[in-house]
Structure prediction request, 268 residues.
Amino acid sequence: MSAHHEVRRLVDTGGGLIARCDHADLFGSIAWLVRRGELVPVLPGVYCLPDLVTVPEIRMRAVCLRHRDAVLVAGAAGRVSFWPAAPMREVAVAAPVAIADRPGFAFTRRRIPPELVIERLGLRYTAPALTAIDLATFECADAIDIALRTRATTLDRMYEALRLTAYRRGNAERLRLLIDSRNEPWSAAERRSHRIIREAGITGWEGNWPVVVGGSLYYIDIGFPLLKLAVEIDGRLHETDEDLFESDRWRQNALVADGWTGSVSRGG
Prediction:
């Protein structure tokens, strides 16, 4: 097999990527394929097939190949872990040394504690606990809500991530958000409802209270266990998603049969 064919084979088996530093004996062939336009640089020394150069996953894998101690953070980390639709304008990367930004990438000099780094399938990214608090702000607490709803992490782990990354700018707001999340909201509508209930001084309730009925596990948005009173927070999704609408009706029937009563609050 020629060296050119070997490079093509390595690119195919590498998911469309190749790092020059891993194949010193193939420098010439890699350069030849770049000149022919069969490979294009994603980052210096890391190449991919032309039609893959703007694919976010390729960019994320490329940065982990190029900078072996770099860690994906924020939206990039969210997309490869618990939040596939996490907002991401650029691939955000933390590294222990300063790295110049490049188009499509944003590098920050920052050391991530090893216990908050996950390595999987050629990617290094922050654990969901740190990713969630990195992404969350009071204007958009979705990251915390989604992390809790998907069981990607827990409030205790998020508090620990905050402790391990102390003295960062914005940590005061992150702490306030975690306190605001103490009843574990799973959506913005639930978060607002929890805040209203707490401000009204109402007690005896739990957010997303688990109930087992007929061998099935259900979560009540806001449950008063002693009263068997359920408050459900309906959003627009319930009105537009027919499968979810039907599922909710079965769920409601099961809870009523088990002795629960309640109401539905229309969310945003």
Remarks:
- DSSP finds eleven helices and twelve strands in the chain.
- Residues 82 and 180 are 21 Å apart (CA to CA).
- The longest strand covers residues 216-224.
